[in-house]
User: Fold this.
Amino acid sequence: MSPTDLTRLSAAEAATLLQDGQISSVELTQAHLDRIEAVDPAVHAFLKTMPDRALEEAKAADAARAAGDDLSPLAGVPIAIKDVLATEGLVTTCGSKILENWVPAYDATVVRKVRAARLPILGKTNMDEFAMGSSTEHSAYGPTHNPWDLDRIPGGSGGGSAAAVAAFEAPLALGSDTGGSIRQPAAVTGSVGVKPTYGGVSRFGLVAMASSLDQVGPVARTVLDTALLHELIGGHDPMDQTSLTDPVPPVVAAARQGLAGDIGHLRVGIVKELGGKGFQPGVLARFREALDLLQQLGATVEEVSCPALKYSLGAYYLIMPSEASSNLARFDAMRYGLRLAPEDGPATVETVMGATRWAGFGDEVKRRIILGTYALSAGYYDAYYGSAQKVRTLIQRDFEAAFNRVDVLVSPTAPTTAFKLGEKLDDPLAMYLGDITTIPANLAGIPGISVPGGLAEDGLPVGIQFLAPARADAFLYQAGGALEAALVERWGGPLLDQAPALPGGGQEGGEAA
Assistant:
């Protein structure tokens, strides 16, 4: 099998070939490293790659398989890690200058699980600084580009992970989702991204932005691949006090059930408040087609209303910056990370801290720290942060009422396709509005998935989002798998087969000619 063929395999397909001895992890990992070398100068999905270490991990996986060890289903399949997750012995920057030389002394729990399962780690992916952004343009190390159109954004904050998967640089990736940072990049790059139930995947070792909203999750090219990775990283972690003690939901079985078209009993709700005005015509057209397919498969579809969702954007942009300003207070130039002396005056604790934070944080991080600090200040706490938490409760109640009627809710993942780089940098509010459909899930703590829904009138990918009740992640994979199977049959192959070539990557889908 050629290196080109190897990089086009899904993780499940690669895992089967590895188990059958038809390919080795070294071959598979080297093919992806070669692909990264060829196309990442144009995409910039990775901040750091580790070829030697990845190949050593691949050799270890092959040796363990040869020795007859009991291995994870994904053993030997390479993976990319969002640079917000701590990796022992490897620089972890969170896309920020203030952490440009920070090397953690420990692994995040999800990274430890990945290593234990013998998935070679290809490298760390680019992101908006401290996960603050919707376009990966706020990285201190330069933007990532969308593989479908290099002049457009790949979404954010996890644009690097989504772009790496969509550009065939990695079959799997880990991301984090605070307001849509897995699902929105998946939507605009034609990949699949999942935000699990809050607490369903450990957050230990995830550099916190907003602790009550952040959630680690999988990114891949198929629903089954995300389910396999979700099953690997999920489960209780005593190191995370918000971690659920529940067993991991049967997500792999649900994905296979959906892929077989078994959703005849599924009740699907269309969220009245998550569509219409402000949504691109091509996005709504693909959404309506998805609904028709679900009904053809036997699902029942009805409209539901969640009135409080119209306040979700305002509530989120009070809660998130408030928690972010508190979490980022730890970057004080005293314990780790960047440390700069003031240009003028004595070097005191206060002046060093001020000089370091001014130089180390980018504009978007400063903007959110200022907003959050104001919302938490004396005299304004109850009016802003307290009121936002009350709205959050109303949103949770609306979802509970909706899920008494249906099994899953469905909407477009994002109101538009990928916009051009630089188009919204000077208009933060316009950028924030791109998360209007994904934010409610984080406020409520419920799981969500984005699956490719086709191409809009501009030839760019559209995402379809499913939401499920807390702890009912399996419903996502059942609905997402069914829609994916029906659309792939209609398209005659995966959506990413229609992606244009990348510089250095040849023709057809960006692959070598």
Summary: The chain has one domain: 3-310+392-498.
